[in-house]
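Example (one chain per record):
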Amino acid sequence: MTTATSMAAQGSAGAVARALTLFYGIGTYLFFFGTFVYLIGFVGNWVVPKGIDDGTPAASAGAAVAANVLLLGLFAAQHTIMARPAFKEVWTRWVPWHVERSTFVLLATAILAVMAWQWRPLPESVWRVESPLAAGVLTAVSLAGWGIVLVSTFLIDHFELFGVKQTVSYALGRPLEPPRFTERLFYRWVRHPLMLGVLIAFWATPTMSQGHLLFAVVTTLYVLIAIQIEERTLVHLHGEQYRSYQRRVSMLLPFGRRRQD
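Predicted structure:
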């Protein structure tokens, strides 16, 4: 094989690799976004084929609780471990940088999809708001919580967060700019608006079943633990800039800590 032929073959292989990387990143993102939309319907029992109170009940309430906590715990463990810098340092020895985030998103999304599929309903009501107006307000608040979640991802860097930016940069042969710390909109009021939006979305409901309550309680506990871990990571990444932010802005609730350094 001549040198020119060898170089052409390498160039062709590189083009295929870039195209496959782009396909992988975009495909993973579409899988995530579809699952995210489904999860909105799942938690609210809206439109989707199987809501949080639908499906075949487990043999007993204890079995349902155990299965559901296991599913939520699997997501929490994957999300917590794989997002840590120490794990990434080892993980990226085998997984290239341009697909590392997409792979993380793919695994997290797959677990969420399985959770929604295998969730065991506990449909007995804990509370039910009878007033149509109050029920409508609670539904609107829940949807607003989901909106806060989505908008918060764009305030960070939505496509970097879900791996698309990395795969596009690789496919186009461009260097990837690292995400920068910014304080915009919700992030001026709380340090973790995305997590606040999740809690609002899960707790604001006109009908709270036992299964929905279990879901909300377990995810709230996870959020409170995950935030503490994430704070340490952000201090490690951004140093004094983030420490100053901690002193000025509340962690989860939009009040307190408004002093300037």
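Caption: Residues 3-248 form one domain.
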